[in-house]
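Q: Hi! First time doing this. I have a protein sequence and I read that you can turn it into a structure. Is that right? Here it is:
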Amino acid sequence: MKSNKMKSVDKLYKAFIYVALITLAITIIVPVLWVFMASIKENVEFYGNPWALPKGFYFQNFIDAIEKARMGEYFVNSIIVTITALVLLLVIAVPASYVLARFDFKGKKIIEGLLMGGLFINVNYIVVPIFLMLLDLDKYIRGTWGTGFFLDNKFILALVYASTAIPFTVYLMSNYFKTLSKAYEEAAYVDGASNFTTMVKIMIPMAKPSIVTVILFNFLSFWNEYIIALTLMPNSSKTLPVGLINLMQSQKAAANYGQMYAGLVIVMLPTLILYVLVQKRLTEGMTLGGVKE
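A: Yes, that's right. Below is the predicted 3D structure, encoded as structure tokens:
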């Protein structure tokens, strides 16, 4: 009797899990598909049944979004800022993670404590102090050189992105490096390799799954970030999320919904493509280590 009851409970539990997962998938997939369908509709089609399939493929919405709404320019800006931020982040965080995970030195506990504290800081809460600090520096530079540097600068925006992502990245990668066996390093030292050579040629290649995970998470964060980009680049060309908000506000007033949804697709498509390409590596980075000691 107990075994039959246990089996029925297991079946009921599995059924509940399947229903919950299917419901979650529907709540995610349906809005995404609806946005893609709406992006190729003509304006007239929105005044009928909003759930009706498109009558054709009206790609003029994308052309108008790229040319008239400057989404192409904003797209390029986001690409430049995101890639620059990722490069800066990896150059700083990967060696720092390796050193913290594999070596003991004075002040290590303090550095680890500061990085752990950084995990609990919401970046949105410190945007104003960052802006005021950069504004003061910009005023000083303008007074000395006659031109500003720290505001409306894509590199500075990328530097702020990379800096705010360091605590999470170092925490994730240092834990991954700790799972790798020291036998790899010992073999490299026997062969005469230096610490730097061992890190670059042996340990970092072994940490590729973790690096891919870091790249994906931070790409999504940098690509979709709005508040910092809006604050630190008030006058120059915008990044894609800021440009998208402006587009949505202007097109709502103009009732040009197709162009607005085309802008949404332009923002979503790179993240969807990236996730599909690195999905397997992402899973490995979250679940696998190396050969444990």
